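Per reviewer request, we include the raw input and output of the structure prediction for the construct analysed in the revised manuscript.
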Amino acid sequence: MFYLRIADEALAHFRSGGDRGATVDLLRGTKGADFEAPGLVRLEGEAVSCGCWGGGSSEDFKSRYIVIKGPFCFVFQNETASSPSYAIRLHHMSSERDKGSRVVTLRESIRTDAHFMITLDSEDKAAELHRTIRRMTAEAETEDIRKRLGHGHLLNKRSSVRFAEAVATQKTQDQPEVPVTTTEMLATINLSTDPYGL
C-alpha cells in the first residue's frame, strides 16, 4: 500500500515542479528517516555582519524541520510542509561539533568559506545529528566508489531512499545563496571612479 501512495505522491511532486508531494511522512518511508528534529539552519560565510549588505535576515533565525534520509539533508519550513524548502547534499561534507555544543557545522570539502550551521534544542540531538551526518557521508562516498568501479548495478536501495534522492536532486538547486563577503564587496569597488584621487 505504501508503494502506491509513494508513487502517487512522487508523481504529484514532479508535476508540481517540486512545490508539493514530498512531505516529511513520505520521506520517512516505512523504515523511518535516518534523523529528524526541529532546529535552526543557517548558511554562513565570512559575511558582512552589520546587516547593511545582506549580513543577515529574520529568515535566518526561524525554526525549521530537518530530515536526513540517505545522503541528503532536507530542510522544511515545518513538519507539516508539503515539500522541503531545499536539500543539502552530504557527499563530500565534513561535520564538526564541539563537545557540549548544540551546534553542528557542515563544511564542503571543496569550499571552506561557506558552511551550514545547524542549531538543535539539545546537546544529545546535536551529537546524534553529528553521528548521522558522518555515517551518511561515509555511505555516500562508498557508493560513489562502487559506481566508479562499475558496481553501481549491485546497489540495492529501498524505494523511499530512491524517492528521497529524486526529490533532493531537484531541491539542492533551491539552496540559499552564499552571503557576500567583505572581500568580495571591496573587490567590486572601482578605484578609478574615486573623485578625490585617494
